[in-house]
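This section describes the prediction task in plain terms. A model, or a person checking by hand, is given the sequence of a single protein chain and must write out its three-dimensional structure as a string of tokens. No templates, partner chains or ligands are provided. The sample shown here is typical of the held-out split.
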Amino acid sequence: MKKTLYISFLFLLIINVQSCKNKAIDIYVSPLGSSTNDGTKEKPFKGLKNALENARLINRGKEDVITIHLLEGDYHLSSPLVITSQLNNIAIVGEGADKVTIKGSKIIDTKWESFNKKILVTSIDNTLDFNQLFINGEKQILARYPNYDENGGYWQGYAADAIDKERTSNWENPIGGFLHAMHCGCWGGFHYEIVDVAEDGEFELKGGHQNNRPSPMHPEYRMVENVFEELDSDKEWYLDKTNHKLYVWKDGDTDLANAKIEVSVLKHLLEIKGSLENPVKNVNISGINFQHASRTFMEQYHQLYVVIGPFIEEALYCLMVQKMFLLMIANSQTLEGTLFLQMVIIET
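The expected answer:
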């Protein structure tokens, strides 16, 4: 008994001595900050990437912990955040998931005009290519058939005639449209892009790789989207990528001239990348809401992938605590690389 007590006391003593040697380093970030600030709470950095770059440059002990504090606001990313072994022992802490949001979208300028009595149109930058649209923070619906119905079952609405020629013959240019269909035995689903139209009206489709059980499409459970002629319902939108035009269905309750228009630009928001020699260790992410990543159901991934990431390679003892992820798990995709995870915890 005495030996046990002695060992326990010695163990605690070592922990206490070690903890006294560790140094806590705090960096503050705000959407209203500046890249020329010093990262204090009074003079925070503007961007999270700016803070991560400064964290990499700090001369610190191996066990010193850096905490990056995200002050209230939205943080729009132009490229994914990357955490490597250089940033081991780091915490990225927001003031709360209801106050701090990291977004894979950008705000765009618009100048709306009437296309017809029900549809508005605006020209957009010719470099933009997106598949998610948010107006005043609310996700919009890509023009589709059948129309969105919260209680409509698969895809919130399905129809056996989704690609019947009687309907598709009215589509002037369906190339770029998407067809979603369930497995004939309802064992998951398939997603296709319309890449060409034959003279007889038959579609050439690309995709269907998302399910490892080959099967014909279910004859009833089908939905089509991203077709201009199906823009006919509240909150629907369509992007003409050729002519760089964004179309939306009129909503009498929304003042589009003064609305915040956001479009997705990133497929994932966070990358954790290490190696067997230099694994990523002890990463804590909390109090942050991740939103607005692009849809990825047509990507050639082969395992599990969630839209906000994380994209993980060789992480050891990596603790991620996130209070709120706004996710759309679009298909079976991948956490890239060889996983060497002993602890990864994500609270949602």
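For orientation: The radius of gyration is 24 Å.
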